[in-house]
Amino acid sequence: MISVPRALGIAAGALLAAAIIAGGAWLASWTLLAPRPQTAGRLAISGLQGPVSVVRDARGFPYVSARSLHDAYEAQGYLEGEDRLFQMDVLRRFVGGRLAEVFGPQLLSVDVRHRMIGPEQMAQRMYQQAAPEERAALDAFAQGVNAAMRRDPLPPEFRALLYRPRPWRPQDSLLCGLATVIDLTHTWSQVALRARIDARVGSAAAAALYSITDPRYDAPLVGRPAPVPTLPPFPSVGNPARSGAAPPIADTLPWRADREASNAWAVGGAHTRSGRALLANDPHLDFTVPMVWYAIALHAPGLNVVGASLPGTPGVILGHGAHIAWGATNATVSTLTLYREHVRETPKGFEVEDARTHAWIAVVAQTEQIAVRGARAHAFERLRTPHGFLLLDGQGRLALPAYAAAWVAQREAHSPLAAFLALDRAGSLESALAALRAYPGPPQNFVLADDRGRVAYHLAGLIPVDGVWGTRAVDGSRIVDAWRGYVPFDQLPHVDPSRDAVVFTANNRVYGAGYPYRLTDAFGPPYRAYRIRELLTGRDGLTDSEMERLQLDDLSLPELELVRDVLAAAARHPGADEDPRTLERLRAWDGRFDANASAATLAYRL
Question: How far apart are CA 532 and CA 392, in angstroms?
């Protein structure tokens, strides 16, 4: 006999299967039979100042030729709206905290987390304070996207989800740009994790457990390797968390493990066979369909650039012009300060102890509604103290103990787009570096090359000097403002333009001994940078084929070292239960993560 719950489950499964089949057939009919965007011939688009030519190569990548910058950016907006409209709409909804409006209650917590920082308000301030050239590019791009919305059939995803996208605003491009700021920012959750480790095992042990780099493979680009803390004996460390020290941060705070593994390098013409500079860049952002990047070429008076843009934003982010090329990796440095606040709840709301007067003052609360598809709208309160926004849990409640975050992206209402638009038009390494001087962030390691065979490197972006560098939270009841300005651009790690230079970066620590600023609690592991340095430095006659082989290099020295240590331990304990075949595979492994190497899978799981 079938029980009621099981019968309901079978019925629900049958209904779901039927819905999937029906929905698939419905969507397929729309997808296969719906009119396609026009990809050949002539189009009349309002707003253009003159004729624009668009040619797509065999891969579908568009090459735009226009008689003005306005028309180049409007054409780019049209093309991206034609090719990526649903991706762009989801991206602006993701950053702006409007996913639940389309996808329902299951994404409400994501909306709450993003509304907490006020991205719509940030984008509006950035647009209002943008220079005329940047606003003109944003306006033209938005014109193009809206022209594509009006002229082309909506992508099938909109039909399947039964909604129409609202018109594209210039501020929406800034929202899309904020996606990378949010994704690449040294997050408050990382500071929270470090604070919990520090409270549990003590600051000396935390400094070694959460090391700034791996000293065995440290590969600074500027200076010689610097020492890192060594692990003290645990019995002498004690357990401050159990003895009344700072409490751990609430487990409700979001946490994301570091996954940065980007790499970039450039070799000056003195070390290449051709005498020309060579540059390679592989930014390891998430694999998505469609991809994160949108490949495009833009040609207009004063603009001749080819590369990758971010869908929803004008211009090229990574690429090359007629005279220079550039690539970037995330700098993995701290751009925020976390304040541990003294907060109390009153009948009228929350109050915080003011660090200047030590009086209790009201926490600023801004109320707004989050629309939720298929459910009642969610009332949301954004909370701010004099230090910054208060961290909330996934339900929009104040996370206790209370922490406020001061963040560069909120304090400095400038988008990074202006710097990239200037890079697109730069005619020399000097003008490119001048553009990076005004780049607000997120901080990036930029590698550059020019047609004179010179290469250069510069870390760019606003990095606040707060003395803690993300290693811990500061006491908000005692410290009014921990920031003592930003690290000056000329004091950020850099290598001046030269034909003799070899520059490289892979999210690792780029500075060596004697550098005056820590910049972060921990950089990305230095293993890839160590390998790049090993294969590039001290060599001449390098070719583009060798650069390609290096980009595809699959040797992992730290995993090989780990396997050898495991084999040595197994030899010291011959009576253990290891499978002899497993040990034999590990002994024969050369450290390469080849697709056919089963030992690589074993090493990865160690």
Answer: 41
Question: For residue range 534-549, what is the model confidence (pLDDT) as tens digits?
Answer: 999 989 999 999 999 9
Task: Supply 147's token pair.
Answer: 């022209």
Contacts by 317-321, CB closer than 8 A, 24 or more apart? 317/293, 317/420, 318/281, 318/283, 318/293, 319/424, 320/279, 321/424, 321/425, 321/426, 321/427
pTM: 0.87
450 or 2, higher pLDDT? 450
**Residue 255: pLDDT over 70:** no
pLDDT one-digit tens code per residue, 80-110:
999 999 999 999 999 999 999 999 999 998 9
Alpha carbons 449 and 266: distance in angstroms, whole number: 7
Terminal Cα-to-Cα distance of the chain (whole angstroms): 48
Alpha carbon separation from 526 to 215, 409, 517, 533, 546 (Å, rounded): 9, 27, 19, 11, 21
The span from the CA of 312 to the CA of 85, in Å, is 8
Helix (H, G, I), strand (E, B) or coil at 141: helix
> How far, in Å, CA of 114 to CA of 182, rounded?
9
The DSSP bridge partners found for residue 44 are: none
Residue 258 has pLDDT above 70, yes or no: no
Which of the four pLDDT bands, split at 50, 70 and 90, describes residue 78? very high
- Measured between alpha carbons, how far is 495 from 46 in angstroms, rounded to an integer? 46
Residue 428's alpha-carbon distances to 425, 433, 453, 461, in angstroms, are 9, 9, 12, 20
Q: How far apart are CA 169 and CA 122, in angstroms?
A: 14
Distance CA 375, CA 104 (A): 7
CA–CA distance from 136 to each of 73, 144, 314, 470 (Å)? 9, 12, 10, 37
List the strands of the sheet with 360-362, edge to edge.
343-346, 349-353, 360-362
Structure tokens at 190: 């990382």
